[in-house]
Amino acid sequence: MGRIVMQGLEFYGRHGVKPEEGTLGARFVVDVELEVPFEGRGDRIEETVDYAAVYATVAEVVTGERFYLIEALADRLAGEILARFARAEAVTVRVHKPHAPIPGVFRDVYAETHRAR
Question: What EC number(s) is this enzyme filed under (predicted)?
Fold first, then answer.
């Protein structure tokens, strides 16, 4: 099994519990790690997972839907990726909310989920 890692995909979304998060929106960062069989594969895009198509799927969900919890967003992304990309045996998704409304100094907040077939 091999891994395809897409790190630091940035989008503007309107996710969060607070009303102003839905109104104003914020930047969200998504990491996707795909487990894909490499052994015995050739050198053609049809034999793997097209990460440009994965990016488009992530963009569609993050910018097109509203979630109150980043946990729910991460779970939806994982399910959608496995549903659309049959060659992916498993996926790990992290949704970062670097500007979460937390009173204090912090580097990052993220939710992570892992799903396998």
Answer: 4.1.2.25
